[in-house]
Amino acid sequence: MSRLVVVSNRLADPRKPAAGGLAVALGDTLSRTGGLWFGWSGVVSEHCQPGECQLQTRQAGRVTLATVDLAAEDHAAYYQGYSNSVLWPVFHYRLDLADMHGAYLDGYRRVNRMFAAKLLPLLQDDDIIWVHDYHLIPLAAELRSLGCRQRIGFFLHIPVPPPLLLAALPQHEWLMRAFFAYDLVGLQSEADVAHFRRYMINEAGAEDLGDGRLAAFSRELRVGAFPIGIDVQEFERLGRASEAVQTCEALRAEYARRQLLLGIDRLDYSKGIPQRVRAFRQLLEKYPENRHSATLIMIASPSRDDVMAYTDLRQELEGLCGAINGDYGDLDWMPLRYIHRIVARRRVPGLCRAARVGLVTPLRDGMNLVAKEYVVSQDPADPGVLVLSRFAGAAEQLKDALLVNPYDRESMADAIQTALHMPLEERQQRHARLLTHTREHDVHWWRRSFLQALQGHEANDPSTLFTPSPPPGGEPG
């Protein structure tokens, strides 16, 4: 069996339950193959120069964890800059929030080049390399330029925007060409695949070979949809644990006369949280029978509070929530409970189970696993209803949710009203189909399907190694 090498911006010890479903899923294969997990340590160091931090390794059972610190300049340019101030907003359709600072791309390339140089000596000839997410798009190109001949796959966890939005990225040709250094690119949805394919054909001049294969730059690339799932069994165990049970019982006791609606998100402009709050206000205006009856618990955990766009979002949200409570609240009823802090993951199944309606309404999302966690948390005998944005990747799979347009507050209010008053039999039928799909397409299915596709894919001729061209303007410093 080939050894698996996982590369991601951040990594976790797969032996620890708190590491999450992704770490557990990858950990299964890493442990079996004696694998390697490589990435940033999470440390911003004052003791190394940009692009020159040292490698550290440690063992986690049979898994080797290899990490590199980032110099402050690299963290600012690679992570806060190009990754999260350019790629994140553009890939989430928010060109207006992108900060196209030229130095960011230099730092992004520099860190990916450093990671490639640190990773290459750790590789074995028959390794299978799996690179994750937008922070590391050019990593394979940097590895190929150093002589790496192993099979390399890439998975993008965020959505792919239409070609014209991708083309708005300065030097987009260089970034998108870097995908052809991979043997397999996995995306969250068929919509993402369609956008990716159209860009490559229309902008990069790629030839469509059929069966998900594209040819350009003397390389052949396969691209496909591999929708990520959750670790269903792990989440069910979490739901049976005392803290989740106590959370559910406490909420049901406190809100015995109310129907609970629940939203759980990071505070991010992609999540559509203000639009959701406005739709809830529309519900109370249009359907007054929900006053003193429905309560929305809105959890928005902190996210990049030092970035102006997020500060503005928090202020907007707090104003909207305060206005609803001021206009509609009463001595014995507060329509909206807003919480701006991280809620322990072990309480999440209890929160979901207590909620009659789960509101997962992003403006754009790669997948959104909260939707699947809500489904798994429900009591099959008396399940709640999932209201899901059609712009979440999960909407392609979870078709028995109530699919909504988060930009249309009136139709969202109508959907919430439908969910609150949906008959038991329909709720049971919808939930059963959602649960079946979520179980069958869990995170382990996702891992197996991607790795099988990567291992079964005919690799490019290793004699045609990919040498990435630098962005226009010369080699980044």
| Count of distinct structural domains | 2
Distance between the termini: 40 Å
Helix percentage range: 40-55%
Main sheet strand line-up: 3-4-2-1-5-6-7-10-9-8
Radius of gyration: 23 Å
Name of the CATH class of the largest domain: Alpha Beta
Shape: globular
Largest sheet: 10 strands, mixed
- Under the CATH scheme, the architecture of the largest domain is 3-Layer(aba) Sandwich
Strand content: 15-25%
CATH topology of the largest domain: Rossmann fold
Architecture blueprint of SSEs:
Elements: E1 4-7, H1 21-33, E2 36-45, E3 55-60, E4 63-71, H2 72-91, H3 102-119, E5 128-132, H4 139-145, E6 151-155, H5 163-166, H6 172-177, E7 184-187, H7 190-202, E8 207-210, E9 213-216, E10 219-225, H8 232-240, H9 242-254, E11 259-266, H10 273-286, E12 294-301, H11 308-328, E13 336-339, H12 348-354, E14 357-360, H13 370-377, E15 385-389, E16 402-404, H14 409-420, H15 424-440, H16 443-456
Parallel strand pairs: 1-2, 1-5, 2-4, 5-6, 6-7, 7-10, 11-12, 11-14, 12-13, 14-15, 15-16
Antiparallel strand pairs: 3-4, 8-9, 9-10
Helix pairs in contact: 2-3, 3-4, 9-12, 10-11, 10-14, 12-13
